[in-house]
Amino acid sequence: MITQTFLPRRFALTGLAALAGAMGVASWAVAQDISSVTMEEVRAAADTACEGGKTYKIAYSHSVSEAAIVKQVRRFADERAAELGCVEVLHDNTQANNLEQQLNAVQGWITLGVNAIVVTPIDPQALAPLQKQAQDAGIKWLTYLGEMDNSDGFVGFNHSQSGQLVADAAVAWAKANNVENPEALVTTLTGLPLLSPRWTEVERIFKENGITIVSMQDSADEASGLKVAETVITQNPGLDIIIGLNDNSAVGAYRAVKVAGMDETKMFIAGQDGDPSGLAAVNEGGAYRGSAAIQINTLGANIVNQALNAINGNGPTSAYTPTVWASKDDQALLDQLLANYQ
Predict the structure, then answer these.
(1) Angle between helices 197-208 and 159-176 (to 10 degrees)
(2) Pairing of strands 5-7, 10-12
(3) Is residue 185 predicted with pLDDT exceeding 60?
(4) What is the per-residue pLDDT for 9?
(5) Under a CB-based contact definition with an 8 Å cutoff, are residues 37 and 316 in contact?
(6) Most buried residue among 54, 228, 255, 307 by CB atoms closer than 10 A?
(7) Quick check: 287 and 252 in contact, CB under 8 A?
(8) What CATH architecture is 159-294?
């Protein structure tokens, strides 16, 4: 459910990737600066924010608030605010990447005088005047998943880590099962180059380990994942590995494997994001071996934590929420990730 279309300096998102794969990081320079920041550092600084009776209003705008994954991230932000006891999180109702809705919401928050705004920028150029207005008024401006110049912080995750997790797991499976000359299908989304580490890291690691990629095609939803996999399976009946750009694409490919009646014990399928459909497929214990899953409970909490750090000038304001490998090999972690959607 990442995104299915791309317009310059705008983001078009659906479903999980609405949240998740969605935007990518600002730049490699930013990536290098924040890659060593730990969640303990982020949280510990925020833990002190309520000292002295301080109270805060933090506003959070996602471009696709109707998406299930976004609703859960908002829930975890609210839970972190309630845990601290001095924070109120305000949410807008921007849906379907409606720029006018987002602009109106942000303007309202500036007028209200909130302490920080955390925003998934639908159009950075259109939001830039409001960013300046907010910062001139002493309101901290953080971006979520997308990037804007001169922001006070960045809340997101690392696409390179995601690609490395799925690739390393596939390599380990192929070696453990003595797969000779393994062949793979990898889905991409070339219209969103900021997501490219999700497949370029897979390319790199597969090449280093003798895995041949027989096809790389764009797919970010179940329907296209099914169609792409059906075609590739027909042309390459010996296909061993399928890596999805996201879980939606991989789940569609998984359906194709089932329809084709392929031996699931001889297949490795994996997705990225850790969305409900992907995690459920992993939990079946068949060919869908795992997902590079975003810890949405931590991601939601970091909306509050990093905003508080920016407001108080204490602690990291930019950080990557870790991505973890979710598989049947660690049922406790898998159950925890599934529980995040309940």
Answers:
(1) 30
(2) antiparallel
(3) yes
(4) 33
(5) yes
(6) 307
(7) no
(8) 3-Layer(aba) Sandwich (3.40)
Q: Per-residue pLDDT averaged across 287-310, rounded?
A: 97
- The domain spans of the chain are 5-157+296-321, 159-294
pLDDT in tens, 317-326: 999 999 999 9
| pLDDT tens per residue, range 71-127 | 999 999 999 999 999 999 999 999 988 999 999 999 999 999 999 999 999 999 999
Beta bridge partners of 143: 119, 154
pLDDT at residue 35, as a whole number: 82
Residue 280 CB contacts under 8 Å (≥ 6 apart), including other chains: 338
The domain defined by 5-157+296-321 folds into Rossmann fold (3.40.50)
- The full DSSP string for 276-310 is HHHHHHHHTTSSEEEEEEE-HHHHHHHHHHHHHHH
pTM of the full predicted structure?
0.81
Judging by DSSP bridges, how do beta strands 87-91 and 56-61 pair with one another?
Answer: parallel
Residues 18-74: tens digit of each pLDDT: 544 334 333 323 444 788 899 999 999 999 999 989 999 999 999 888 887 889 999
Answer yes or no: same fold for 5-157+296-321 and 159-294.
Answer: yes
What distance in Å separates the CA atoms of residue 113 and residue 138, rounded to the nearest whole number?
9
| CB atoms closer than 10 angstroms to residue 125 | 11
Angstrom distance (rounded) from CA 271 to CA 339: 18
**Taking the alpha carbons of 19, 21, 24, 30 in that order, is the dihedral positive or negative?**
positive
3-state secondary structure 94-133: CCCCCHHHHHHHHHHHHHHCCCEEEECCCCHHHHHHHHHH
DSSP-derived pairing of the beta strands 268-273 and 318-320: unpaired
Specify the DSSP class assigned to residue 195: G
Percent of the chain with pLDDT over 90: 80
